[in-house]
Design goal:
The chain is an alpha+beta fold. It is 18% helix and 36% strand. It has 4 helices and 12 strands. Strands 1, 2, 3, 4, 5, 6, 7, 8, 9, 10, 11 and 12 form a 12-stranded mixed beta sheet that branches. The longest helix is centred in the first third of the chain and has 13 residues.
């Protein structure tokens, strides 16, 4: 694990080989360019690669998956077209095992549970509405959570997704009365100082798309009082 700082980028590299690179995304970074025109993480990683390897021309980097802007944690990029195609296939075949940590308000009624809902995205408001039963244009969403730590005012959950829907963890946890800390969009009362939310892509596990070796990548949560308290107690 290393932190590389150039004059144009600041990326926390968790893993890198000839075909893929994994970054611990910071709160506030966008993975891919959007209408805000803010520099996306994908471009910062390109700059890092260009600087590290003294590449004279354009740098190839494929976006494999995304995290919401207020979320932190592991993001994988492909450094070759072969890796991009194969990583996309792994995600499509659900052969990627991702683990999230979420700090939520209140304590879930059950310390461990699988949640199944139907989600419908509203592109105008960029929010996802949760339904207990299927409605028109909704998509089935399944996640599994378990309690890792009970704090005075919050609960740390480990969450694994069976489906990958927009704002899935955020909306489903809010639906059961446990919004993620700082997530104003889904019912938490106060924003976090950094504008983020306490949802972190903690780890990712898969078979390397080229070498076929097992890969496990772990990302330390952001440096703040609450995350630090959780990591010290687990």
């Amino acid at each position: 694990m290393s932190r590389i700082v150039t004059n144009s980028s600041n990326v926390h590299v968790l893993y890198e080989d000839n075909h893929i690179i994994a970054i611990n995304k910071r709160v506030g970074d966008i993975v891919q360019g959007d209408k805000t025109n803010d520099p996306p993480l994908s471009e910062l990683v390109k700059i890092y690669l260009k600087y590290k390897y003294n590449k004279p021309g354009a740098v190839f980097l494929g976006v494999v998956h995304r995290l919401d802007r207020p979320t932190s944690g592991v993001v994988i990029f492909a450094k070759t077209s072969k890796a991009l195609k194969r990583m996309n296939q792994l995600f499509q075949d659900k052969k990627i095992d991702k683990t999230y940590w979420a700090i939520v308000k209140k304590r879930p009624v059950k310390s461990k549970e699988s949640l199944t809902h139907w989600l419908k995205k509203n592109p105008k408001t960029n929010t996802t509405k949760v339904y207990p039963k299927e409605v028109q244009d909704s998509k089935k969403a399944i996640l599994h959570y378990k309690t890792l730590l009970k704090l005075d005012n919050y609960t740390l959950l480990e969450v694994k997704l069976e489906t990958g829907r927009s704002h899935q963890i955020r909306s489903q946890m809010a639906y059961i009365g446990c919004p993620i800390k700082g997530d104003l969009k889904y019912g938490f009362q106060r924003s976090n100082a950094d504008g983020g939310i306490h949802l972190h892509a903690k780890a990712i596990q898969f078979t390397h798309p080229v070498s076929k070796t097992p890969i496990y990548i772990n990302a330390v949560p952001p440096d703040d009082v609450l995350w630090n308290e959780c990591t010290k107690m687990i």
